[in-house]
Amino acid sequence: MNSNNNLYINKKTEDQVTQEEIDLKRLFDMFWRNKRLIGLLGSFGVIISSVVAFNTKKVWQGEFQIVLEIPQAKPSLDPSTSALAGIVGLPSQVNTLETEVGILKSPSVLINVFEFVKTQKALKSNASLQSIRFKSWQKNSLDIELEKGTSILNLAYRDVDKDLILPVLDRISTTYQEFSQKKRTRSLDLGLDYFKEQISLYRNKSIGSLRKAQQFAIDKNLSILQEESTIDLEIPNSINVESIRVKAANKIRLLDLQLEQMENLKFESDQIMYAASSIPDIAELKISQSIKDIDSKLAYLRVVYKENDKTIQKLVQERMILFDLLKKQVKGYFMAQKLEAQALLKAAERPEGVVIEYKRLLANALKDKSTLDDLENQNRALLLQKARSEDPWKLITNPTLIPSPVAPNKKQTLVFGLLSGILLGSIVALINEKIKNIIYSVSEQEPLCKWPLLVELSASQTKAWAESLDLLISGELLDNNGSIALVPIGDINESLLKELSQVFKQLLEDQDLIVTKNLIEARKCTNVILLTAFGITKREELIDTNKKLLLQSKPVVGLVSIKNINFKT
């Protein structure tokens, strides 16, 4: 079964590959037939693009690079510190670079530069440029982006006025330095004011929540918080009553299991002896030792006397009494331990909701203390930043004008025009072929009718027709005693039909041959052969003929197709 499946899959794959090859070949043939049209439109595209390329003004570009100096956060700070920094607008490693780039692109920095550009262009052209919008100028003239994985910022400015490039870049650099320094100072001052207010608030809040948790623990007889020098250690990691309850409950379950096992043990089981020896209070009574001594005496006496001897029976009776006493003492010990554990469990019980409330109070105290620590750490970092005097960024390269114009790229424009023309020509060719609906190959013809292809003749090699048709006539497909009707489909050239009928008549001895498009007349002949010509016969003509022949129930021997006919696109 698996073998059959594999064969089926392999066959299906081969068919798919063959179909793809046929489709590609058909597409290539279509392009080749329409090469004049495609070449004409491709040339037209080159002409149009060359006119555009040579008449477009040259665009010049200048550029410089800067390194954004990003303040590094302390590794020891909690991740929540970044959230606090974001509240007051402080730099964080997550979004500082993007923020700096956004500032450099914003109108607040570039609006003065934009006005400078408008003024200079207006002076040179003696016209007002009020129609220019900042967004369009920024989009078309400025490229501001970070190099991937670095804090290096690349800035480029383009303009058709070569003399304007460097002054604009210098003005951008100066404006950004002034804006960044002002922003940095203002941000630090606002941050320090914010932290000063919040630290005072959370210090009082932290002390209050801690005292509330401590007082609740005292009132409800819960674990008392340790008095330490830091507030962190004053918040316990566990609640004593919870631990006592868990331990007592586990001990009760263990004692119940031991008591149940004692009840199920045989009267004189060695496990009773082992349990008694593990209990110090019972072990001191030396009952187990007495039983062992009796066992030794019995072993000696049973060698000398019979089992019914009075001395042996007396020792056996004494041994049973000791075993009974030992078992009662072990059970009594377990019961006493159980009562003690039950008393502890009862003592550790608290009203419903007390422990939950205590945990909630502890959690609130811990959150307040954690927030206070974060605020104090961030405040220290901010004070250190303010103490440092540095520029937020540094120039790597000075504003530089690229010697050659960056646009238009004539080669690229010409290539684009050529490709556009070829693409347009291909689309027009496809539409043209779709409209004509002409058959050009065997692969296009086969799906349109059920009749087999008998022979494929080449219009450029008419001398070879006789050999191919002789094989057809001498074969078993034709009725050698009947007449033959050759039915051309489409506007096939009369000279080709005449030449083909002459070859047929030379090969036929006593059989009649007629060439006709009239299917009613063709029905009178014994053998009906359809004739198609690639590049002339249309799909709808072949389909229509096929339908008519099926309605007449007239058997058709097959098709003869002529290829390599010269035709114009």
Low-confidence stretches: 72-82, 90-94, 224-238
Proportion of residues in β-strands: 5-15%
Individual helix count: 20
Order of strands in the sheet with the most strands?
5-9-8-6-7
Largest sheet: 5 strands, parallel
What's the number of extended β-strand segments? 9
What does this molecule look like?
The protein has 569 residues and is α/β, with parallel strands linked by helices. 63% of the residues lie in helices and 10% in strands. The protein has 20 helices and nine strands. Strands 5-9-8-6-7 form a five-stranded parallel sheet, covered by helices on one side.
Keywords:
single chain; four-stranded antiparallel sheet; flat; five-stranded parallel sheet; 63% helix; 569 residues; alpha/beta
Outline of the structure:
The chain is α/β, with parallel strands linked by helices.
List the helices and strands and how they pair.
Layout: H1 2-33, H2 35-55, E1 60-68, H3 80-87, H4 96-105, H5 107-125, H6 134-141, E2 142-146, E3 152-159, H7 165-219, H8 231-234, H9 240-264, H10 270-277, H11 280-283, H12 287-304, H13 310-347, H14 354-387, E4 393-401, H15 410-436, H16 442-445, E5 453-458, H17 465-474, E6 484-488, H18 494-507, E7 513-515, H19 519-522, E8 527-533, H20 539-552, E9 558-563
Helix pairs in contact: 2-15, 3-14, 5-7, 7-14, 9-13, 10-13, 12-13, 17-18
